[in-house]
Amino acid sequence: MKLKKFLSIHILCVLIFVGFLYYVTIFIFLNDLLSLQSSTGEFHSFLFTFIASLCVFSFFVCVIKDPGGVPSSYLPDVEDHEASDQESKRSGLLKKKCDKCSEYKPPRAHHCRICRRCILRMDHHCAWINNCVGHRNYKAFVTLIFYGTIAAIYSSVILVSNALHKDWNFDGVMPFKLFYIATGVVVIGLSVTLGTLLGWHIYLIIRNMTTIEYYEGKRAAWLASKSGLNYHHPYDVGAYKNISLVLGPNMLKWLCPTAVSHIKDGLSFPTSREYS
């Protein structure tokens, strides 16, 4: 069932692009620059292959790993201060129900219209992994962006270095120039795009926000300012604690996409009120 997720045009395009980028980086640009037969060439070839492998592995984890759905047995806690307050209790329960799938929704869960279900701590639905990015695969998504950024920058440096050292004084140089320019634009553009995305998610991790919560928070902050109040994201419990909740308490495992033993059930989360 999980393998069916790979039957997607977007995933096929990603795999073809990664294969193309790996081939031209190692067997064209790096080979021209240092020669794969040299010790330096072998070292950079091994290092780039290692980074690219981690990127592909993280990609597979993102695709296969379930982002986390709401258990069918889930029932939210609603405070019932008095026995006569049944109407208030019923109203509170209705507010916690998803109006699309009619299931109870835990805090930070949102309904995905593509997956047709509520996703725990949903960040967004990503067509490039044919999956939602949520509670259980968010770390793998972050490591995917990280390794993808490193690989793209590494490839860009090799390409530019090769272009600067290459002798262009020979007949038929124009097709090679066009190839280098086109590839350079794509790889450098990819580096900037992935680097920007990585910076964005580092910001979200430090604040313990999802992309959805960021935009919800902007509106909440605007409404609070109109009332003369200050808005604080309720799940922001401090930078280091926020990072630990997403990447784990062990720094040595932060960049391992499958090191997720610290991930809880996703039905409740610590709040700033508990740490105040």
From TrEMBL:
PROSITE patterns: DHHC. It is an enzyme of class 2 (transferase). Residues 95-216 form the Palmitoyltransferase DHHC domain. InterPro entries: Palmitoyltrfase_DHHC, PFA4/ZDH16/20/ERF2-like. Pfam families: DHHC (PF01529). It is found in: Endomembrane system. This is S-acyltransferase.
